[in-house]
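Our consortium's second objective concerns turning raw sequence data into structural hypotheses that experimental partners can test. To show how far this objective has progressed, the report includes one record in full. It was chosen at random from the queue rather than selected for favorable results. The single chain below, 99 residues long, was entered without modification.
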Amino acid sequence: MLFLCGLFVPVNDLPSFLQPLSYLLPLTYGADILNGAFLSQWLLNVWMDIAVLVGFTVVLKSLELYLEPQEILHQLLAGQENSPVFGFSGRGQSFRVHL
């Protein structure tokens, strides 16, 4: 991801088959903001970069909030009480969450 985001090699200089893949990576938009701030070389408008990063954040956080309760329910039904979601033990310490 680091090499495709435009941080080391500009996205426009990448081979044509890699450029669409580069636009699917959130790091591309963060690198564009940094390039614009330090080098005044923008790939996109700064507000477009920010909007895309906010969009990635909203989509991925929504996905995480949707999937995490499913995982907790699955672990409860499977009887996996020692899973990291419910507790941990190590170095003489233990912690458990009882639902």
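The partners drew two points from this record. Residues 11-85 form one domain. The chain is about 50% helix and 10% strand. Both points have been shared with the crystallography group to help prioritize constructs.
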